[in-house]
Each structure stands twice: as structure tokens, then as C-alpha cells.
């Protein structure tokens, strides 16, 4: 089954745009290379748009509409798709994308990221929110972790933690000891690195909020956290903004060795 057959135009506006672009191009007997030259991009960009791997950019939609005299067809479709927050562009939820990802990068301000939480730590976090069924919430979180860590070829994972994560008590000292030990154990895995941004770094771009970057099917996605539920970000320009933020945090994060020493030192405080 090819990537075009996986698209669902009835469910996703972005899928509809991908299918319609191929239809319009084929009808005009325009090759992918010719269309790429028309919009000033590489042939692979056209292929990725038509296969649903990346969304069409508004500037490209405008060029195509003018060249093919489409009376703003793609311009309107792209604008409408961008406004439809409920259209997840075949993405499903965050857990689904984490399970499929080949690379995961996370930054967390105040808590251990969900993918690295122990059951007791997760239960404590859920207990202070509006979660009604704690058992189910913890079970779901553990399943999310298993989907990432237990697969045959696990993703490359990079985690930046704010120093507050180590010093902010979540539950009892026993819960914190178990959680920090978990961080140390995960950090020993060859495909995982955990680094800490020290208190001395002061205020920095990371305080704009926690974030997650994922590489899924050769496309880059971002996840922006929010009080009432975060959202997946697919627009390349918006994703790039998250990548720049993540890189800047990395510039000030301590190396893996010193970070590990900080986690070990924090562990000793929970007696």
C-alpha cells in the first residue's frame, strides 16, 4: 500500500489537499519535478505534500492557484485547514506519535516528563489535578511508556530538565528517591540522554513552557503543553520555532556527566 492510499480526505482537510493536488497535477499532465520548479522547491517537497507527510504552505498554494487559474482553491483550503484545530492531520494523539517516533526530544520545567515517570510519581501528579480515575490514568501512562521503550528499535530520546524538577518534592521522599533512581537508570540506556539546566542559568527561553519534538515518518512535529491539554503542531515554520527554543536550551544545559552528578546529589537529599 502506497502513502496516497493511506490518506483519508473525508477525515482530514490536509489529506484532502494532498489528494486534490495530485489530481490537479495529473489532470494537467504536470510532473512532480515541474511543479517543484514552479513553486521554487525540491521535487521531494511535492512528493511529501502529496503523500501527506507535510502540509502545503500558503505561499505555495497561492503560486499554484495563480499558475493553474484555480480561483484561490488551494489558498482557501490551506487557510481553512490551518483554522481547524480539531483536524489532527491524521496525527491521532501524542501517545500514538511517540510510539511511532524515531526521535523524541523533551524539555520540562517543573515535573519529570510523563514518559519517564514512575507509577507512584505519576499517581501523585494525577492526584492533584481533576483526574477521576487514578488507576486508569496511571495505567494509560505506563502503556504510553511501554509503547516507546519496549519496541524493537526504540527512539533516540533526549531530555532537558529544569533544576526545579530535581528539587520540587512530588509525593513522599520515597516517591522522589524512586523517581530520581529511574532517571539515572534511563540515562544509562544507549539511546537516551538526560541533561539538567542548572539554577545558575537564570531565566531563559525555556520558561516559555514545556515542549516536545518528535520525528515521525521523516517529518518533524512539536507538542506544546497547555493547562487544558496541549496540541500537536505540524506547520513547518511553527515547528522550527520550537526547534530553535530547544536548541537554545541545549546551549545552556549541563553535559550528561555533570547532569548525572546533580541527579545523584538531589537523590541524597530525599532521606
Structural class: alpha/beta
Percent in helix? 40-55%
Residue share in β-strands: 5-15%
Shape: elongated
- What are the secondary-structure elements, in order, as H or E? HHHHHHEHHEHHEEEEHH
Number of helices: 12
Strand neighbour order, sheet with most strands: 3-2-1-4-5-6
Domain DUF5753: 92-264
GO molecular function, one term: DNA binding
Protein name: Transcriptional regulator with XRE-family HTH domain
InterPro entries: Cro/C1-type_HTH (IPR001387), DUF5753 (IPR043917), Lambda_DNA-bd_dom_sf (IPR010982)
Describe the 3D structure.
Residues 92-264 form the DUF5753 domain. The protein is of the alpha/beta class and 271 residues long. The chain folds into two domains: 3-83, lambda repressor-like DNA-binding domains (434 Repressor (Amino-terminal Domain)), CATH 1.10.260.40; 94-269, Endonuclease, Chain A (2-Layer Sandwich). The chain has twelve helices and six strands. Strands 3-2-1-4-5-6 form a six-stranded mixed beta sheet, with helices on both faces. A hairpin with a 2-residue loop joins strand 4 (211-216) and strand 5. Helix 4 (58-68) packs antiparallel against helix 5 (73-83), helix 7 (119-127) crosses helix 8 (134-149) and helix 10 packs antiparallel against helix 12 (256-269). The longest helix has 17 residues, at 236-252. It starts with 12 loop residues before the first helix and ends with a helix. 29% of the residues are buried. Residues 86-91 have low confidence and may be disordered.
Amino acid at each position: 500500500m502506497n502513502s496516497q492510499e493511506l490518506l483519508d480526505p473525508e477525515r482530514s482537510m490536509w489529506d484532502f489537499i494532498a489528494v486534490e493536488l495530485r489530481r490537479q497535477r495529473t489532470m494537467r499532465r504536470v510532473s512532480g519535478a515541474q511543479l517543484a520548479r514552479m513553486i521554487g522547491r525540491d521535487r521531494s517537497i511535492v512528493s511529501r505534500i502529496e503523500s501527506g507527510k507535510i502540509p502545503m504552505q500558503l505561499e505555495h498554494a497561492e503560486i499554484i492557484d495563480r499558475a493553474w487559474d484555480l480561483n484561490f482553491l488551494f489558498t482557501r483550503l490551506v487557510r481553512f485547514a490551518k483554522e481547524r484545530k480539531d483536524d489532527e492531520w491524521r496525527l491521532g494523539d501524542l501517545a500514538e506519535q511517540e510510539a511511532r517516533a524515531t526521535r523524541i526530544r523533551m524539555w520540562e520545567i517543573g515535573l519529570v516528563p510523563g514518559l519517564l515517570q514512575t507509577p507512584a510519581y505519576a499517581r501523585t501528579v494525577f492526584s492533584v489535578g481533576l483526574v477521576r480515575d487514578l488507576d486508569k490514568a496511571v495505567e494509560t501512562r505506563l502503556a504510553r511508556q511501554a509503547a516507546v521503550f519496549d519496541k524493537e528499535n526504540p527512539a533516540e530520546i533526549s531530555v532537558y530538565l529544569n533544576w526545579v524538577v530535581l528539587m520540587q518534592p512530588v509525593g513522599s521522599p520515597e516517591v522522589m528517591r524512586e523517581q530520581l533512581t529511574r532517571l539515572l537508570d534511563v540515562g544509562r540506556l544507549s539511546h537516551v540522554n538526560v541533561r539538567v539546566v542548572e539554577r545558575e542559568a537564570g531565566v531563559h527561553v525555556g520558561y516559555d513552557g514545556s515542549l516536545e519534538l518528535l520525528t515521525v515518518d521523516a517529518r518533524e512535529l512539536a507538542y506544546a503543553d497547555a493547562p487544558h491539554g496541549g496540541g500537536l503542531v505540524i506547520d513547518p515554520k511553527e515547528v522550527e520555532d520550537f526547534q530553535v527554543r530547544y536548541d537554545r536550551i541545549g546551549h545552556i544545559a549541563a553535559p550528561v556527566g555533570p547532569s548525572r552528578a546533580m541527579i545523584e546529589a538531589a537523590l541524597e537529599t530525599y532521606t
